[in-house]
Amino acid sequence: PLLARALDTLLTQTRATFAGFLSLDPDGPVAKMTAPEKAEVDHALSRQLTRSVQRLRRPVWLAQDQSSVESSDSLGPFTDAFCLPLRVVGADLGALHLYKGQGLFTERQLRFGEVLAGYLANSLHVLRSRRTLEAENSRLRGHAPADERLLGDSPPMRQLRDRIARTAARPVMVLIRGESGSGKELVALALHRQSDRCDGPLVAVNCAAIAATLPEAELFGHCKGAFTGADRDRPGLFQQADEGTLFLDEVGELPADCQAKLLRVIEGKGFRPVGATAETRVDVRIVAASNRDLEAEVKNGAFRQDLLFRLQVMQIVVPPLRDRADDIPELAASYLGRMAVEYRRPIKLTDEALKRLTAYSWPGNVRQLWAVLESAAIMTDGPLLDAADLPLPNDAAPATAPGLDLEALEDWAIRQSLRKTQGNVTQAAKLLGVVRDTLAAKMKRRGISREG
Protein backbone atom coordinates (compact mmCIF):
# COMPACT_ATOMS: atom_id res chain seq x y z
CA PRO A 1 0.00 0.00 0.00
CA LEU A 2 2.84 2.42 0.75
CA LEU A 3 4.45 1.81 -2.65
CA ALA A 4 1.10 2.18 -4.42
CA ARG A 5 0.43 5.50 -2.73
CA ALA A 6 3.94 6.76 -3.54
CA LEU A 7 3.56 5.88 -7.22
CA ASP A 8 0.13 7.52 -7.44
CA THR A 9 1.55 10.68 -5.80
CA LEU A 10 4.43 10.76 -8.28
CA LEU A 11 2.07 10.37 -11.25
CA THR A 12 -0.06 13.27 -10.00
CA GLN A 13 2.76 15.65 -9.11
CA THR A 14 5.04 15.00 -12.09
CA ARG A 15 2.34 14.34 -14.70
CA ALA A 16 4.21 11.22 -15.74
CA THR A 17 2.66 8.73 -18.15
CA PHE A 18 3.90 5.66 -16.33
CA ALA A 19 5.61 4.96 -12.99
CA GLY A 20 6.98 1.85 -11.35
CA PHE A 21 9.16 0.26 -8.70
CA LEU A 22 11.96 -2.28 -9.26
CA SER A 23 13.98 -4.06 -6.61
CA LEU A 24 17.74 -3.61 -6.85
CA ASP A 25 18.57 -7.30 -7.09
CA PRO A 26 21.88 -7.78 -8.89
CA ASP A 27 20.78 -11.24 -10.07
CA GLY A 28 17.79 -9.87 -11.94
CA PRO A 29 15.55 -6.99 -10.82
CA VAL A 30 11.89 -7.95 -10.55
CA ALA A 31 9.05 -5.49 -11.07
CA LYS A 32 7.16 -5.10 -7.83
CA MET A 33 4.56 -2.53 -8.78
CA THR A 34 3.44 -0.19 -11.55
CA ALA A 35 1.01 2.70 -11.83
CA PRO A 36 -1.39 2.85 -13.45
CA GLU A 37 -1.73 -0.96 -13.26
CA LYS A 38 -2.97 -1.34 -16.84
CA ALA A 39 0.20 0.33 -18.13
CA GLU A 40 2.23 -2.74 -17.15
CA VAL A 41 0.69 -4.60 -20.06
CA ASP A 42 1.88 -2.01 -22.58
CA HIS A 43 5.21 -0.93 -21.09
CA ALA A 44 8.16 -2.43 -19.24
CA LEU A 45 10.37 -0.79 -16.65
CA SER A 46 13.84 -0.14 -18.08
CA ARG A 47 16.51 -2.32 -16.53
CA GLN A 48 19.09 -0.10 -18.21
CA LEU A 49 17.95 2.80 -16.05
CA THR A 50 18.09 0.61 -12.94
CA ARG A 51 21.62 -0.54 -13.77
CA SER A 52 22.71 3.05 -14.36
CA VAL A 53 21.39 4.04 -10.93
CA GLN A 54 23.27 1.14 -9.37
CA ARG A 55 26.47 2.02 -11.18
CA LEU A 56 26.36 5.81 -10.65
CA ARG A 57 24.74 5.61 -7.16
CA ARG A 58 22.61 8.70 -7.86
CA PRO A 59 19.39 9.64 -9.68
CA VAL A 60 19.53 9.28 -13.46
CA TRP A 61 17.59 11.73 -15.68
CA LEU A 62 17.38 10.63 -19.29
CA ALA A 63 17.23 14.21 -20.62
CA GLN A 64 20.59 15.02 -19.00
CA ASP A 65 22.27 11.61 -18.79
CA GLN A 66 21.85 10.25 -22.33
CA SER A 67 25.49 9.20 -22.45
CA SER A 68 25.19 7.23 -19.20
CA VAL A 69 22.18 5.16 -20.25
CA GLU A 70 22.30 2.46 -22.91
CA SER A 71 19.47 2.52 -25.42
CA SER A 72 16.76 -0.08 -24.98
CA ASP A 73 13.36 -1.00 -26.43
CA SER A 74 11.64 -0.19 -23.14
CA LEU A 75 12.69 3.48 -23.45
CA GLY A 76 11.57 3.74 -27.07
CA PRO A 77 7.94 4.91 -26.51
CA PHE A 78 8.96 7.74 -24.15
CA THR A 79 10.44 11.19 -24.66
CA ASP A 80 11.89 11.41 -21.15
CA ALA A 81 12.43 9.32 -18.01
CA PHE A 82 14.18 9.40 -14.70
CA CYS A 83 15.09 6.78 -12.13
CA LEU A 84 15.51 7.38 -8.38
CA PRO A 85 17.33 5.06 -5.97
CA LEU A 86 15.64 4.03 -2.71
CA ARG A 87 18.65 3.91 -0.43
CA VAL A 88 19.13 3.61 3.33
CA VAL A 89 22.32 3.17 5.32
CA GLY A 90 23.98 -0.03 4.21
CA ALA A 91 21.30 -1.15 1.75
CA ASP A 92 19.72 -0.34 -1.62
CA LEU A 93 16.04 -1.22 -1.36
CA GLY A 94 14.92 -0.47 -4.90
CA ALA A 95 14.43 2.16 -7.58
CA LEU A 96 11.53 4.36 -8.68
CA HIS A 97 10.94 4.87 -12.41
CA LEU A 98 8.98 7.67 -14.10
CA TYR A 99 8.35 8.01 -17.84
CA LYS A 100 6.80 10.74 -20.04
CA GLY A 101 5.16 10.00 -23.35
CA GLN A 102 5.36 13.62 -24.48
CA GLY A 103 7.57 16.49 -23.37
CA LEU A 104 10.27 16.55 -20.70
CA PHE A 105 10.33 16.48 -16.93
CA THR A 106 11.31 19.68 -15.12
CA GLU A 107 14.05 20.20 -12.54
CA ARG A 108 11.34 20.84 -9.94
CA GLN A 109 9.65 17.51 -10.70
CA LEU A 110 12.97 15.69 -10.35
CA ARG A 111 13.63 17.32 -6.97
CA PHE A 112 10.14 16.41 -5.78
CA GLY A 113 10.83 12.81 -6.78
CA GLU A 114 14.11 12.81 -4.87
CA VAL A 115 12.45 14.06 -1.68
CA LEU A 116 9.64 11.50 -1.95
CA ALA A 117 12.16 8.71 -2.64
CA GLY A 118 14.08 9.65 0.51
CA TYR A 119 10.99 9.48 2.70
CA LEU A 120 9.80 6.29 0.98
CA ALA A 121 13.15 4.51 1.48
CA ASN A 122 13.15 5.31 5.20
CA SER A 123 9.53 4.22 5.58
CA LEU A 124 10.15 0.95 3.76
CA HIS A 125 13.18 0.30 5.95
CA VAL A 126 11.13 0.92 9.10
CA LEU A 127 8.32 -1.34 7.86
CA ARG A 128 10.77 -4.10 6.97
CA SER A 129 12.39 -3.87 10.42
CA ARG A 130 8.99 -3.91 12.10
CA ARG A 131 7.90 -6.91 10.05
CA THR A 132 11.07 -8.73 11.08
CA LEU A 133 10.44 -7.94 14.74
CA GLU A 134 6.78 -9.00 14.47
CA ALA A 135 7.76 -12.31 12.91
CA GLU A 136 10.39 -12.91 15.59
CA ASN A 137 7.92 -11.98 18.34
CA SER A 138 5.29 -14.32 16.87
CA ARG A 139 7.81 -17.14 16.66
CA LEU A 140 8.92 -16.66 20.26
CA ARG A 141 5.36 -16.36 21.57
CA GLY A 142 4.32 -19.51 19.73
CA HIS A 143 6.33 -21.63 22.12
CA ALA A 144 9.00 -21.30 24.76
CA PRO A 145 12.13 -22.97 23.40
CA ALA A 146 14.62 -24.20 25.95
CA ASP A 147 17.45 -22.32 24.30
CA GLU A 148 18.02 -20.66 20.94
CA ARG A 149 21.55 -22.02 20.70
CA LEU A 150 22.64 -25.39 19.38
CA LEU A 151 24.35 -26.56 22.55
CA GLY A 152 26.82 -29.41 22.79
CA ASP A 153 30.27 -30.27 21.51
CA SER A 154 29.81 -33.94 20.69
CA PRO A 155 30.96 -35.18 17.25
CA PRO A 156 27.35 -35.29 15.90
CA MET A 157 26.82 -31.66 16.95
CA ARG A 158 30.10 -30.52 15.42
CA GLN A 159 29.08 -32.19 12.15
CA LEU A 160 25.66 -30.53 12.35
CA ARG A 161 27.14 -27.05 12.82
CA ASP A 162 29.51 -27.60 9.90
CA ARG A 163 26.60 -28.68 7.69
CA ILE A 164 24.60 -25.60 8.69
CA ALA A 165 27.53 -23.27 7.97
CA ARG A 166 28.02 -24.79 4.51
CA THR A 167 24.32 -24.67 3.67
CA ALA A 168 23.32 -21.28 5.08
CA ALA A 169 25.25 -19.24 2.51
CA ARG A 170 23.66 -21.06 -0.43
CA PRO A 171 20.26 -19.69 -1.56
CA VAL A 172 18.68 -23.13 -1.88
CA MET A 173 15.79 -24.88 -0.21
CA VAL A 174 16.63 -27.05 2.76
CA LEU A 175 14.85 -30.06 4.22
CA ILE A 176 15.61 -30.70 7.89
CA ARG A 177 14.97 -34.25 9.06
CA GLY A 178 14.90 -35.44 12.63
CA GLU A 179 12.78 -36.88 15.38
CA SER A 180 10.16 -34.82 17.16
CA GLY A 181 11.74 -32.50 19.71
CA SER A 182 15.29 -32.90 18.39
CA GLY A 183 15.71 -29.17 17.65
CA LYS A 184 14.77 -28.79 13.97
CA GLU A 185 13.52 -25.24 14.48
CA LEU A 186 16.82 -24.27 16.10
CA VAL A 187 18.56 -25.53 12.97
CA ALA A 188 16.22 -23.41 10.83
CA LEU A 189 16.97 -20.40 13.04
CA ALA A 190 20.71 -20.98 12.66
CA LEU A 191 20.34 -21.27 8.86
CA HIS A 192 18.43 -18.00 8.75
CA ARG A 193 20.84 -16.09 10.99
CA GLN A 194 23.88 -17.24 9.02
CA SER A 195 22.35 -16.45 5.62
CA ASP A 196 22.28 -13.17 3.71
CA ARG A 197 18.58 -12.95 4.64
CA CYS A 198 19.35 -12.49 8.33
CA ASP A 199 17.95 -8.92 8.29
CA GLY A 200 14.62 -10.20 6.96
CA PRO A 201 11.90 -12.01 8.91
CA LEU A 202 11.93 -15.65 9.92
CA VAL A 203 8.33 -16.87 9.87
CA ALA A 204 7.78 -20.29 11.42
CA VAL A 205 4.60 -22.33 11.02
CA ASN A 206 3.66 -25.78 12.22
CA CYS A 207 1.83 -27.27 9.23
CA ALA A 208 -0.01 -29.71 11.50
CA ALA A 209 -1.57 -26.78 13.35
CA ILE A 210 -2.85 -24.93 10.24
CA ALA A 211 -6.65 -24.72 10.30
CA ALA A 212 -8.02 -27.52 8.12
CA THR A 213 -10.91 -25.33 6.88
CA LEU A 214 -8.85 -22.62 5.17
CA PRO A 215 -5.20 -23.69 4.79
CA GLU A 216 -4.81 -21.55 1.64
CA ALA A 217 -5.79 -18.38 3.52
CA GLU A 218 -3.20 -19.20 6.18
CA LEU A 219 -0.38 -19.70 3.67
CA PHE A 220 -1.28 -17.20 0.96
CA GLY A 221 -3.53 -14.66 2.71
CA HIS A 222 -7.01 -13.44 1.87
CA CYS A 223 -8.87 -10.30 0.81
CA LYS A 224 -11.64 -8.56 2.67
CA GLY A 225 -14.97 -10.26 2.03
CA ALA A 226 -13.41 -13.43 0.59
CA PHE A 227 -15.36 -15.56 3.09
CA THR A 228 -17.44 -15.19 6.23
CA GLY A 229 -15.38 -13.45 8.89
CA ALA A 230 -12.85 -11.93 6.46
CA ASP A 231 -13.43 -8.34 7.59
CA ARG A 232 -10.07 -7.08 6.31
CA ASP A 233 -7.20 -7.96 4.03
CA ARG A 234 -4.76 -10.31 5.75
CA PRO A 235 -1.31 -11.20 4.42
CA GLY A 236 -0.48 -14.89 4.43
CA LEU A 237 2.65 -16.53 5.77
CA PHE A 238 4.43 -16.20 2.42
CA GLN A 239 3.83 -12.44 2.33
CA GLN A 240 4.89 -12.09 5.97
CA ALA A 241 8.17 -13.85 5.14
CA ASP A 242 8.93 -11.74 2.04
CA GLU A 243 12.71 -11.08 1.78
CA GLY A 244 13.27 -13.56 4.61
CA THR A 245 12.82 -17.23 5.46
CA LEU A 246 9.65 -19.30 5.77
CA PHE A 247 10.08 -22.34 8.02
CA LEU A 248 7.50 -25.05 7.31
CA ASP A 249 7.66 -27.43 10.26
CA GLU A 250 6.02 -30.86 9.83
CA VAL A 251 5.63 -30.19 6.11
CA GLY A 252 4.38 -33.74 5.64
CA GLU A 253 1.11 -32.71 7.29
CA LEU A 254 0.14 -30.32 4.47
CA PRO A 255 -3.05 -31.33 2.60
CA ALA A 256 -2.71 -32.37 -1.03
CA ASP A 257 -4.14 -29.16 -2.54
CA CYS A 258 -1.73 -27.02 -0.50
CA GLN A 259 1.17 -29.22 -1.61
CA ALA A 260 0.32 -28.45 -5.23
CA LYS A 261 0.20 -24.70 -4.62
CA LEU A 262 3.39 -24.79 -2.58
CA LEU A 263 5.13 -26.52 -5.49
CA ARG A 264 3.89 -23.79 -7.85
CA VAL A 265 5.36 -21.05 -5.63
CA ILE A 266 8.65 -22.96 -5.30
CA GLU A 267 8.89 -23.14 -9.09
CA GLY A 268 8.92 -19.33 -9.20
CA LYS A 269 5.28 -18.75 -10.08
CA GLY A 270 3.00 -16.40 -8.18
CA PHE A 271 0.06 -17.20 -5.97
CA ARG A 272 -3.34 -15.65 -5.57
CA PRO A 273 -4.62 -14.78 -2.08
CA VAL A 274 -8.13 -16.07 -1.38
CA GLY A 275 -10.58 -13.64 -2.99
CA ALA A 276 -7.89 -11.78 -4.99
CA THR A 277 -8.01 -11.24 -8.74
CA ALA A 278 -4.28 -10.71 -9.29
CA GLU A 279 -1.29 -12.88 -8.52
CA THR A 280 1.33 -11.95 -5.92
CA ARG A 281 5.02 -12.80 -6.00
CA VAL A 282 7.35 -12.91 -3.03
CA ASP A 283 11.05 -13.43 -2.43
CA VAL A 284 11.18 -16.18 0.19
CA ARG A 285 13.65 -18.90 1.08
CA ILE A 286 11.81 -22.04 2.16
CA VAL A 287 13.21 -24.26 4.88
CA ALA A 288 11.06 -27.32 5.58
CA ALA A 289 11.25 -29.93 8.31
CA SER A 290 9.68 -33.29 8.98
CA ASN A 291 9.95 -36.10 11.50
CA ARG A 292 8.19 -38.48 9.13
CA ASP A 293 9.54 -40.79 6.44
CA LEU A 294 8.54 -38.66 3.45
CA GLU A 295 9.71 -41.32 0.99
CA ALA A 296 7.21 -43.72 2.54
CA GLU A 297 4.56 -40.98 2.40
CA VAL A 298 5.27 -40.61 -1.33
CA LYS A 299 4.75 -44.35 -1.84
CA ASN A 300 1.49 -44.17 0.12
CA GLY A 301 0.30 -41.27 -2.04
CA ALA A 302 0.16 -38.86 0.93
CA PHE A 303 3.00 -36.62 -0.27
CA ARG A 304 3.95 -35.39 -3.73
CA GLN A 305 7.19 -36.80 -5.08
CA ASP A 306 7.95 -33.70 -7.18
CA LEU A 307 7.52 -31.51 -4.11
CA LEU A 308 9.90 -33.74 -2.11
CA PHE A 309 12.52 -33.44 -4.87
CA ARG A 310 12.29 -29.64 -4.76
CA LEU A 311 12.37 -29.37 -0.97
CA GLN A 312 15.39 -31.57 -0.39
CA VAL A 313 17.89 -29.74 -2.58
CA MET A 314 19.99 -29.70 0.58
CA GLN A 315 19.25 -32.02 3.47
CA ILE A 316 20.24 -31.70 7.12
CA VAL A 317 19.69 -34.52 9.61
CA VAL A 318 19.42 -33.52 13.27
CA PRO A 319 20.85 -36.22 15.58
CA PRO A 320 18.56 -37.49 18.36
CA LEU A 321 19.58 -36.79 21.93
CA ARG A 322 20.34 -40.47 22.64
CA ASP A 323 23.11 -40.30 20.01
CA ARG A 324 24.80 -37.39 21.78
CA ALA A 325 24.45 -38.23 25.45
CA ASP A 326 27.76 -36.44 26.11
CA ASP A 327 25.91 -33.16 25.52
CA ILE A 328 23.31 -33.75 28.26
CA PRO A 329 25.37 -32.21 31.12
CA GLU A 330 25.83 -28.97 29.15
CA LEU A 331 22.19 -28.91 28.06
CA ALA A 332 20.93 -29.55 31.58
CA ALA A 333 23.20 -26.88 33.07
CA SER A 334 22.01 -24.30 30.53
CA TYR A 335 18.32 -25.13 31.03
CA LEU A 336 18.57 -25.08 34.82
CA GLY A 337 20.40 -21.76 34.65
CA ARG A 338 17.45 -20.23 32.82
CA MET A 339 15.00 -21.79 35.28
CA ALA A 340 17.01 -20.49 38.22
CA VAL A 341 16.52 -16.94 36.95
CA GLU A 342 12.78 -17.50 36.43
CA TYR A 343 12.19 -19.18 39.82
CA ARG A 344 14.65 -16.92 41.66
CA ARG A 345 16.58 -19.70 43.35
CA PRO A 346 19.63 -21.80 42.48
CA ILE A 347 18.80 -25.14 40.86
CA LYS A 348 21.41 -27.83 40.31
CA LEU A 349 21.56 -31.58 39.73
CA THR A 350 23.08 -34.13 42.04
CA ASP A 351 25.54 -36.61 40.56
CA GLU A 352 22.90 -39.36 40.73
CA ALA A 353 20.37 -37.20 38.90
CA LEU A 354 22.88 -36.44 36.15
CA LYS A 355 23.69 -40.14 35.79
CA ARG A 356 20.00 -40.91 35.40
CA LEU A 357 19.59 -38.22 32.75
CA THR A 358 22.55 -39.48 30.71
CA ALA A 359 21.38 -43.11 30.98
CA TYR A 360 17.87 -42.37 29.70
CA SER A 361 17.18 -42.73 25.96
CA TRP A 362 14.98 -39.60 25.53
CA PRO A 363 12.28 -40.50 22.98
CA GLY A 364 11.12 -36.86 23.17
CA ASN A 365 14.68 -35.54 22.70
CA VAL A 366 15.74 -32.08 23.91
CA ARG A 367 12.15 -30.88 24.31
CA GLN A 368 11.47 -33.74 26.69
CA LEU A 369 14.69 -32.99 28.60
CA TRP A 370 13.53 -29.40 29.13
CA ALA A 371 10.05 -30.54 30.19
CA VAL A 372 11.43 -33.10 32.67
CA LEU A 373 13.79 -30.57 34.26
CA GLU A 374 11.08 -27.90 34.42
CA SER A 375 8.62 -30.33 36.00
CA ALA A 376 11.22 -31.35 38.60
CA ALA A 377 12.08 -27.72 39.33
CA ILE A 378 8.41 -26.86 39.87
CA MET A 379 7.76 -29.81 42.18
CA THR A 380 10.79 -29.25 44.42
CA ASP A 381 11.69 -26.32 46.67
CA GLY A 382 15.36 -26.92 47.39
CA PRO A 383 18.39 -26.00 45.31
CA LEU A 384 19.23 -29.62 44.38
CA LEU A 385 17.36 -31.99 42.08
CA ASP A 386 17.95 -35.65 42.93
CA ALA A 387 17.36 -38.69 40.73
CA ALA A 388 14.06 -39.39 42.49
CA ASP A 389 12.81 -35.87 41.61
CA LEU A 390 13.02 -36.51 37.86
CA PRO A 391 9.68 -37.58 36.34
CA LEU A 392 11.15 -40.41 34.25
CA PRO A 393 9.95 -44.03 33.95
CA ASN A 394 11.92 -46.50 36.03
CA ASP A 395 12.03 -49.11 33.30
CA ALA A 396 14.37 -48.83 30.34
CA ALA A 397 12.84 -46.85 27.50
CA PRO A 398 12.16 -48.92 24.40
CA ALA A 399 13.89 -46.34 22.23
CA THR A 400 17.19 -48.12 22.84
CA ALA A 401 16.03 -51.02 20.68
CA PRO A 402 17.85 -50.92 17.33
CA GLY A 403 15.77 -50.29 14.24
CA LEU A 404 12.66 -49.17 16.17
CA ASP A 405 10.03 -47.61 13.93
CA LEU A 406 9.82 -43.85 14.52
CA GLU A 407 6.01 -43.79 14.60
CA ALA A 408 5.98 -46.61 17.15
CA LEU A 409 8.40 -44.60 19.26
CA GLU A 410 6.17 -41.53 19.06
CA ASP A 411 3.10 -43.62 19.95
CA TRP A 412 4.90 -44.93 23.01
CA ALA A 413 5.97 -41.43 24.11
CA ILE A 414 2.43 -40.05 23.61
CA ARG A 415 0.81 -42.88 25.60
CA GLN A 416 3.37 -42.54 28.40
CA SER A 417 2.77 -38.80 28.71
CA LEU A 418 -1.03 -39.25 28.73
CA ARG A 419 -0.83 -41.87 31.46
CA LYS A 420 1.45 -39.68 33.53
CA THR A 421 -0.92 -36.68 33.22
CA GLN A 422 -4.13 -38.73 33.70
CA GLY A 423 -5.31 -37.93 30.17
CA ASN A 424 -4.69 -34.17 30.28
CA VAL A 425 -3.71 -33.40 26.68
CA THR A 426 -2.39 -29.91 27.49
CA GLN A 427 -0.09 -31.18 30.24
CA ALA A 428 0.98 -34.16 28.11
CA ALA A 429 1.93 -31.80 25.28
CA LYS A 430 3.95 -29.69 27.73
CA LEU A 431 5.72 -32.79 29.00
CA LEU A 432 6.61 -33.81 25.45
CA GLY A 433 7.56 -30.26 24.53
CA VAL A 434 5.11 -29.94 21.61
CA VAL A 435 2.16 -27.70 20.77
CA ARG A 436 -1.18 -29.01 22.07
CA ASP A 437 -2.80 -28.89 18.61
CA THR A 438 0.04 -31.00 17.23
CA LEU A 439 -0.41 -33.63 19.93
CA ALA A 440 -4.19 -33.65 19.48
CA ALA A 441 -3.81 -34.09 15.72
CA LYS A 442 -1.39 -37.00 16.17
CA MET A 443 -3.73 -38.65 18.70
CA LYS A 444 -6.68 -38.37 16.32
CA ARG A 445 -4.74 -39.65 13.33
CA ARG A 446 -3.32 -42.64 15.23
CA GLY A 447 -6.43 -43.47 17.23
CA ILE A 448 -4.87 -42.79 20.65
CA SER A 449 -7.37 -42.03 23.41
CA ARG A 450 -6.84 -39.80 26.44
CA GLU A 451 -6.40 -42.91 28.56
CA GLY A 452 -3.32 -43.76 26.47
What is the strand and helix layout of this fold?
Elements: H1 2-14, E1 18-22, E2 31-35, H2 39-42, H3 47-56, E3 60-61, E4 80-88, E5 91-100, H4 107-142, H5 155-168, E6 174-177, H6 184-193, E7 202-206, H7 215-220, H8 237-240, E8 244-249, H9 256-266, E9 284-290, H10 294-299, H11 305-311, E10 314-317, H12 328-343, E11 348-349, H13 351-359, H14 365-379, E12 384-385, H15 406-420, H16 425-432, H17 436-446
Helix pairs in contact: 1-4, 5-6, 12-14, 15-16, 16-17
Give a description of the structure:
It is a single chain. Helices cover 43% and strands 13% of the residues. It has 452 residues and is α/β, with parallel strands linked by helices. A hairpin with a 2-residue loop joins strand 4 and strand 5. It is elongated.
